[in-house]
C-alpha cells in the first residue's frame, strides 16, 4: 500500500508514525503568535528526529466535552504553523480539521493529508477534499465531541463502525476522491465505552481487510486511563501496548504523542516481520 499526493510517495509496507502537534491555545505557553510558531516547529522537528514520518497539526480541541472553535481562530492557529513547518522541515503534513476552509487553505500551504474526525460530513468539506486532491483520513464517531461519551450505544460496534466507514468511503469515491487516497480510522474514544474501544482495537485486521490503510489513534486516551486507573501522564505503557496490537493487526499509520517510544515498538515488530 502507498499514499501519494501527486508529488511524493509514502510507502505503507511497514507502518509509519504520525506525531501529534496540538496548536490549541492551551497547548502553548503564553508568548504571542511568533513564540507559538517557533514552539510548534521545534516540537515537529523533534518528532521527525525521533522517527515520525507525518506531523498531524490540529487547532480544534476534540477531547470529550470540548467546545467548538471559530473558523478564523482555527485558521490563525493552524495555517502559520503549516507554512513554517513546510519551509523548515521535510515531512508529510496532515491537517486535523473538519472545516472546509481550513482544509483548502492548509493544502494550499502545503498540507499533504486531510485528517477529519467527522469524515467530511461538515458543510463543504467533501468538495474541499475532492478539490484538494490529497489523501483523506475518514474517522468514525458516534455523536459530537461535546456529548459523545455520555452514553455510547451499539448493537455490534465492529459491524456498525464498518458500515459507517464503508458508506463514507463510497460517498467519497463517488464524489471524486481516489480509492487509493482513503485512510480509515476506527475513532477510538469518540463515542465508545472501554469495551467498545478494545473490541474495535482487536478488529483492526478485519478493517484492514476492507482494502484501505487503517490509521490508529489510541495514544494517551481514556481507554487506558479507565483500564489502568491512570491520569493522562500514566498512560504511556498502555498506549505502547495498544500501538503494538494495532501494528500486529496491520494498521499502517499510528497517531501518537510519544514518538520515540512508539518508534522503538515499531522497530521491534519490523525485526520480527523479517522472519515471516
Ligand atoms: C484520532 O483518534 N484524535 S484529537 C483525548 C485524549 C488523548 C488524545 C483523554 N484527532 C484522533 O488525540 N484524528 C484526535 O485523552 C484524531 N484519529 C484521528 N484520525 C483527540 C486526541 C485525544 C483525546
Can you walk me through this structure?
The protein is an alpha/beta fold and 276 residues long. It has a single domain (2-271), classed as Dihydropteroate synthase-like (TIM Barrel), CATH 3.20.20. It is 43% helix and 15% strand. The protein has 10 helices and 10 strands. It has helices spanning 32-49, 71-88, 100-108, 125-132, 157-175, 194-201, 204-208, 222-228, 236-248, 259-273, and strands spanning 2-4, 9-11, 16-22, 54-58, 92-96, 113-116, 136-139, 182-185, 214-216, 253-256. Helix 3 (100-108) links the parallel strand 5 and strand 6. Helix 1 packs across helix 2, helix 2 packs parallel to helix 3 and helix 3 (100-108) packs parallel to helix 4 (125-132). The site of ligand YH5 has 16 residues, from strand 7.
Short structural description:
The chain is 43% helix and 15% strand. β1 and β2 form a beta hairpin. The chain is globular.
Largest sheet: 8 strands, parallel, barrel
The CATH architecture category equals Alpha-Beta Barrel
CATH class: Alpha Beta
Figure out the total of helices. Answer: 10
Which molecules other than protein and nucleic acid are bound? ligand YH5
What's the average pLDDT?
95
CATH topology: TIM Barrel
Report the portion of residues in β strands: 15-25%
End-to-end span in angstroms? Answer: 18 Å
Shape: globular
- Walk across the major sheet and give the strand order: 3-4-5-6-7-8-9-10
Order of secondary-structure elements: EEEHEHEHEHEHEHHEHHEH
The residue ranges in which pLDDT falls below 50 over 5 or more consecutive positions are none
* Strands, total number: 10
Which percent range fits the helix content?
40-55%
Radius of gyration: 17 Å
Number of domains: 1
Indicate the structural class.
Answer: alpha/beta
Instruction: Say which CATH homologous superfamily is assigned.
Output: Dihydropteroate synthase-like
Amino acid at each position: 500500500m502507498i499514499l501519494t499526493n501527486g508529488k511524493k510517495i509514502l510507502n505503507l509496507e511497514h507502518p509509519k508514525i504520525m506525531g501529534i502537534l496540538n496548536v490549541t491555545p492551551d497547548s502553548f505557553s503564553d508568548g504571542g503568535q511568533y513564540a507559538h510558531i517557533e514552539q510548534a516547529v521545534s516540537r515537529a522537528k523533534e518528532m521527525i528526529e525521533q522517527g515520525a514520518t507525518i506531523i498531524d497539526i490540529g487547532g480544534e480541541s476534540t477531547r470529550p466535552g470540548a467546545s467548538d472553535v471559530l473558523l478564523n481562530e482555527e485558521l490563525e492557529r493552524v495555517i502559520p504553523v503549516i507554512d513554517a513547518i513546510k519551509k523548515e522541515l521535510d515531512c508529510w503534513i496532515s491537517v486535523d480539521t473538519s472545516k472546509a476552509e481550513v482544509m483548502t487553505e492548509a493544502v494550499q500551504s502545503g498540507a499533504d493529508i486531510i485528517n477529519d474526525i467527522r469524515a467530511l460530513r461538515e458543510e463543504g468539506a467533501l468538495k474541499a477534499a475532492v478539490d484538494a486532491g490529497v489523501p483523506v483520513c475518514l474517522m468514525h464517531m458516534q455523536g459530537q465531541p461535546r456529548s459523545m461519551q455520555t452514553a455510547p450505544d451499539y448493537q455490534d460496534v465492529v459491524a456498525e463502525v464498518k458500515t459507517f466507514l464503508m458508506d463514507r468511503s463510497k460517498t467519497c469515491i463517488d464524489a471524486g476522491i481516489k480509492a487509493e487516497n482513503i485512510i480509515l480510522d476506527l475513532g477510538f474514544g469518540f463515542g465508545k465505552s472501554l469495551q467498545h474501544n478494545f473490541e474495535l482495537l482487536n478488529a483492526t485486521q478485519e478493517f484492514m481487510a476492507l482494502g484501505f490503510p487503517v490509521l490508529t489513534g489510541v495514544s494517551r486516551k481514556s481507554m487506558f486511563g479507565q483500564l489502568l486507573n491512570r491520569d493522562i501522564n500514566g498512560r504511556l505503557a498502555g498506549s505502547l501496548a495498544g500501538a503494538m496490537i494495532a501494528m500486529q493487526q496491520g494498521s499502517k499509520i499510528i497517531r501518537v504523542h510519544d514518538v520515540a517510544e512508539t518508534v522503538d515498538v515499531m522497530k521491534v515488530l519490523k525485526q520480527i516481520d523479517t522472519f515471516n
